[in-house]
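hi! just following up on the protien thing from before. the input was this:
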Amino acid sequence: MGNQYEGVVVLLREIYYRDLVILMFFAPIGLLLFKLGMSSKKHRIATLTQNLMLMPVMIISFFLFGWFFYKGFEFGPGITGGWGVSGTALPWSEFMGPNLDAKPNPDNIINTAIPWHIFLLISIIVVSIATGSWIERIRGSALCILSVILGSVFWVIAAAWGWSKSGWLVELTGYHDPFAGGVIHCLVGGFALGVLLPLGPRLGKQSEIFDVRKTIHNPWMITLGMLMIYVGFISFYFAAQIPLIKTFDSGNVILTTNIYGAPTTIYGTTANLFLSLAGGMMMGFVLSKGDLFWILGGGLAGLVSTSAGNDLYHPLQAFLISIFVVWLVFKAHHWIERRFRIDDVTGVLAIHGFGGFFGLIISGFILWGYPSSPNMEFADINPAGQAFGAMLTFWLFGFFPGYIGSQVLEFFDVLRIPEVLEIGGQDTLAMEKQKEEIVDFTGIEKAVLKEIIEERKN
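and the predicted 3d structure came back as:
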């Protein structure tokens, strides 16, 4: 290992990330509960089964090529260097299994950063966030296909560019995003929007003035789900801070760094996280006049809004930024909902997309001139670099892949469930079919179908 301290640090890191995997699992569980709480009873089992299947789909796809994209695209490739792929990133590598004969190279096996299973769990969280906006009308097969595109291709490439110590966005533009406000949240919001446009709103869920009727079907479930999401968010903050050993004149010191390798403190970033949560929840309460969805969603938007700079912000800065960004998120959500008839069930576009986007823009001004990385040859943080990163993550890695992918699925008529299933309910009609009360779904008479439509509207 080189000296006695390195062995201690390696052991510490193993224990650290082992425990964080367990805690981070609260996030996808919470997201699932939140989606179920926002889903009507007639679609609840379908929502549950579709979203449960995301886990095996993401595990397989990320193992086969997701980790490869992250390790191979740090330099573009071809922008600041060539391919960065080492043998440890390939699915058939000996390092991907419990091979005790493998001879690990500390510079390659985890690159002094987050190990692959943490990235796998983040990919599951990424797709779990996005899929909440499409529930009650998307096909399960389309859900899985879009999730692979998002979770095992585009978010990991964006992470390689801007959430890696050697990423070319960090080096050339000064992009700084230690807790992934852009490469996760902004990107997910853009991808959700790209799918929502071809997918369209739920039937009977919009009034004449195009206000989406956001119905909380189970307030206890969404509250418990969001609290679990908060726990997962805190755990993610810990995962994005890496225990390492550094050599100083006085000797070797064990400390924590951010994703770029710059020293930071967990207690400082955690204080910023809680102040962001408080500001977001308070503003959500005030703006919505006590609406449960926006109290919980405002807290999450507050957390997202400061993710681009919480390793450098003062807690009071984090608090004020979260208040301002949640105000912007709330206003932007209602404007775009009315203007474009966007039916985003769980508010992914607003909470994650707008929260991450505005948070990046603001951080560029507040942190202007700070080092983006401990590598002094890299560009400093600046408004142009943060704005460029926001546009890149939202549009190039988010919106366009989601829009093109869903348009292809729509062309082959496999994007949206049939109208009769959406109106009657996937769960309801499935149970009736099992009981042989209905033999042919398409055989429902128009009068009965019209009656069902009117009943659901009311």
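Residues 419-457 form one domain.
The CA atoms of residues 124 and 246 lie 32 Å apart.
cheers
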